[in-house]
Amino acid sequence: MSQGTLSAPTAPAAVSPHSTLRRLARRNSTTAFLLTLPLILLVLGLVVYPFLYALYLATLNKRMTKFIGIDNFTFLFSRQTFWDVVLQSVLFAVTAVVVKALIGFILAHVLHALPAKGQRKWRGMLLVPWVIPPAISTLAWWWLFDPSYSAFNWALAGIGVDPVPWLGQAGWARFSVILVNVWYGSPFFMIMYLAALKSVPDQLYEAAAIDGATGWQKLRFVTFPMMRNIISITVLFSLIVTFANFDIVRILTNGGPLDKTHVFATYAFQVGIQSGDIPLGATVSLFMFPLLAIFAIFILRGVNRRTKEMA
Amino acid sequence: MAQVTLRKVVKAYDGGVQAVKGIDLDIADHEFVVLVGPSGCGKSTTLRMIAGLEEISDGEIAIGGRLVNDVPPRDRDIAMVFQNYALYPHMTVFDNMAFGLMLRKFPKEEIKRRVDNAGRILDITPLLDRKPKALSGGQRQRVAMGRAIVRDPKVFLFDEPLSNLDAKLRVQMRTEIKKVHQTVKTTTIYVTHDQVEAMTLADRVVVMNGGIIEQVGPPQELYHNPKTRFVAGFIGSPGMNFIPGRLENGAGALRVHLPNDIVLPVPADRTARYSGLAGKPVLLGIRPEHLTEAKNLDRPNVATLTATPEVTEPMGMETLVHFKMEGAEIVARVDPTAPAEPGRPLPMAVDLNYMHILDPQTGRVL
What we know:
The structure holds two protein chains of two kinds. By secondary structure, chain A is an all-alpha fold. Helix content of chain A is 75%, strand content 0%. Chain A is flat, with a radius of gyration of 27 Å. The termini of chain A are far apart. In chain A, 29% of the residues are buried. Mean pLDDT of chain A is 87; it is low at 1-6. Chain B is an alpha+beta fold. Chain B: Pfam families: ABC_tran, OB_MalK. Chain B: Residues 4-235 form the ABC transporter domain.
């Protein structure tokens, strides 16, 4: 027989600060935090700080010498131009994003149907609008829209149509800025959708073909549901970028005619920088946040739900 | 329900590579036919041509007497179970099964009745509200089968449906598939590379190799009377042993001379069949279960030889003994109590009642 002894568990030895540090460094969460730290710092410096500073500025008077509470907000609410800007920003962003999403979806399908060899060539060409700096390409569009000497009006004259005041009339000017934004942004949708299309397993289409689906039914019941997350995320991303668009409107119309093409960014610039009322400009810019937050919450909630169900 | 007929069916790809080289096959109504063969033998391509997922380069395919060469998959009245199940991840189990019926505009009550019925047959009724993500591999496989059953098609096509399951579940699902076929009796064409699946499921097995059909027949016929070396080696696990040798006439009887001066007498009832081959090199084909430890030596046509095992594999109910004979790898099945050890000579019995003689040039069983 062997004899055994029982003893109470001993207290753990005192942990040296060195080993605690080493253990902390070895943790996955620490590595993850360190890797994301540069981005966190960027967001803090370029998003959080300006946002908080804009909040502070919005409470000051024009000379930035006195706290005036919500007077800047009430002033904006009383101005028709501000409500025009709200309407124009929503109209600009929603119309442009919907059209970009549609064109991107169609282009992605056409490209996906091409043989791999030809696909690369077309993909490259169709991405060109997206890779040209928008300030430069918008200048080219500005020339195209020129009322007297532009290619568009020259072409229209050739078929006997009267010249169009592309940038001179509110309706046409709104159409023109949306058109340029669509031209610039559609390739992004196309490339995202193409990637999504390529990730749909071929066997699902084969199963649908055997189940009796036509081409349209495959698109409706297989492709579209399988792409919904990518579509949602792309739409959200594009909505944010389009909503905050500055360069296209600034170069093409500078908000005119009669402020009828202003969006939040160009209006905030005009009020804050050009007219010298920085607190009011900051107040205008703050309105983008709640509108985008509402879109983002709805879209991301749907994405989360679908990811949990399908992934 | 329908018969399926393939006439000189060819599948050629760009560059002239032929995956299927003109096969003929008749599958009867209610029959369960398994296409089996190694990777690249053309079995899946053949199934996909029957499904309409691959174009036919030449020949004719008919389902239920109707030529379907140019008929799209949706109009062939077939259902298919894929290797990766191909369940729609955004639909519930019910919707996955109902999708084909919904597209064909079946009334809602009829769809529900059929899905519930298939759910009962496959024991997946409690899963109908779940999405495929929330199912195990075996459950997904059942749903994929359910999707096929609800359609009540003329032909079921299975493309390696059990390959993604673990060994235990594979055996269980194999039985389920057989039960389902016994219940619904739909003509079934099943593709697998696993000869055990082929043997256990099929009414008839089609062994394919290099784009051609090597042999078609019931499992037992293929096992006991293979026509080619490929079929003899492919069917059975482990496959048949092939030992190079020579047939010689001597002392009034025909004998097979093997390496290491082993001489085995050809059974009297086969002498007439092989007498013309005397003096020629042949391959002796013998299955591992007919090469055992020395036992039943008093039975007619059981000869003895001594082999020195290189490797032994205890399987529980038997032990596989590997040894070499003139470069040929030989496997024998011996009783687990037999004194089989690597390097130790082991007296063995060869049951020549089950021997096969093959032509080493053509690989034909003579």
